[in-house]
Amino acid sequence: MQRIKIGQLLKRIKESITLEDNAAYKRVTIRTKNQGISLRDVEIGINIGTKKQFLVRNGQFLLSKIDARHGAFGIVPKNLDRAIITGNFWTFEVNKELLNIEWFNIFVSSPYFIDICSKASSGTTNRLYLDENKFLDFELVLPNLVEQGLFVQKYKSINYKFEMILKQLVKQQIFVRKLRESILLEGIQGSLVKQNENDEPAFKVLERIKLIKDNKKEKLLPQISDIEKPFKLPKGWEWTRLGNVISLLSDYHANGSYKILKENVNLLDTEDYAIMVRITNLGNNPSQDFKYITKEAYEFLKKSKLQPNDIVMSKITDPGTVYIVPDLKKPMSLAMNLFMLRFHDTINSKYIYYYLKARESYVKSFQGGTSTKTITKDAVKGLILALPPLEEQKRIVDKIDHVMALCDELELNIEQSKLESDKLIKAVLQEAFTVKEEVLG
Question: What is the CATH code of the structural domain delimited by 2-142?
Answer without folding.
Answer: 3.90.220.20
